[in-house]
Amino acid sequence: MCVRRFAKQIECCKRSEAIPSSNGRLLTCTICLANRAGASVVGFRVRASQPSSQWRSLTWEEDTYIWLILALIFASLEALAVSKNLPGLEYFAKPAVMVCLFTGLYASTGLQGNTLWFGLGIVFSLAGDMLLMVSLDRMFLFGLVAFLLTHLSYILGFREELTNASAWSLVLMIIILINSLRLIRRILRSIRATGQNALVTPVIVYGLVISFMLYTAMSTIYHPAWKTNASLLVSLGAFSFYISDLILAWNKFVAPIKNARIFNIVTYYLGQIGLIAGVISQFG
Questions:
Q1: In the predicted model, is pLDDT for residue 253 greater than 90?
Q2: Which residues pair with 26 in a beta bridge?
Q3: Which of 104, 129, 135, 249 lies 20 to 30 angstroms, CA to CA, from 262?
Q4: How many angstroms from the chain centroid is the CA of residue 213?
Q5: Would residue 111 be called left, alpha or beta, if left means φ above 0 and alpha means ψ between -120 and 50 degrees?
Q6: Are both 240 and 108 inside the same structural domain?
């Protein structure tokens, strides 16, 4: 009897079936149970060790969107700090905007090729922000130099677009130049009237450089190598940047503008975010 039962157990191990007992009940082979339990445990361990398909690394597009959104959030906090006179929040939010833009640009392009110049422009902008945040009056000239380097960096980033000259580019240049010269002349009149003659030359140079930066950015609109959405972003961004500097200069030298600082901050950050977003869209 025992020999027959043992033989049935061996056969059960081969077929992985239940063993009929003498009292009619089904007995399961202990060897089979052990094998099945071991396989289940091993299978569980394998499944547990495999990463879930729901967890994956972010693509560079998603990573860039996050940094641009963060820059927009910090820019909003900066506008709030200016409107509510919260210097503590301003000291935190203002540099954070440019840090987010730089990180987003680096994450998407690696600062390769022309994007290196835009990265340098962001660094100079951050320096200018910090200088003017310390004191708009005492640090104005130093901040002017920092932003002058910003615009020169952006111009170098757009330098290839200057080779695509056409009738439209000539018309665009004339329109920007005529309006910029009129505005510069009006600002210089007020500067001379207040006896700040030392600022005449720096303001002329800065006004011409930022006007040329605006022209190079808007030249991407009719450049065949540029995507439509990217050229619109950099063009609107450069124009908003231009308007922000005009607000600052007009409020400082010509006549007070109600809520000038808020308008200046909003247009400045919309300009920077739009410009860098366009560069990322084109070169990312």
A1: yes
A2: 20
A3: 104
A4: 20
A5: left
A6: yes
Of 101, 32, 222, nearest in space to 109 by CA: 101
For residue 55, is it within any domain? no
| 85-to-68, 218, 250, 262 alpha-carbon distances in Å | 25, 35, 22, 11
What is the rounded distance in angstroms from the CA atom of residue 260 to the CA atom of residue 267? 11
**Does 67 share its domain with 153?**
yes
Mean pLDDT, range 17-29, rounded to an integer: 46
Structure confidence at residue 61 as a pLDDT band (50, 70, 90): confident
pLDDT (mean) for 82-97: 94
Domain tally, the chain: 2
Quick one: pLDDT band at residue 32, thresholds 50, 70, 90?
very low
Q: What DSSP string describes the chain?
A: -HHHHHHHHHHHHHHT-EEE-TTS-EEE-HHHHHHHHHHHHHHHHHHHHSPPTT--PPPHHHHHHHHHHHHHHHHHHHHHHHHHT-HHHHHHHHHHHHHHHHHHHHHHHTT-TTHHHHHHHHHHHHHHHHHHHH-TTTTHHHHHHHHHHHHHHHHHHTGGGGG---HHHHHHHHHHHHHHHHHHHHHHHHHHHTT-GGGHHHHHHHHHHHHHHHHHHHGGGG-TTS-HHHHHHHHHHHHHHHHHHHHHHIIIII---TTHHHHHHHHHHHHHHHHHHHHHHHH-
Residues 162 and 34 in one domain: no
Q: Is residue 54 part of a domain?
A: no
Domain that holds residue 39: 2-49
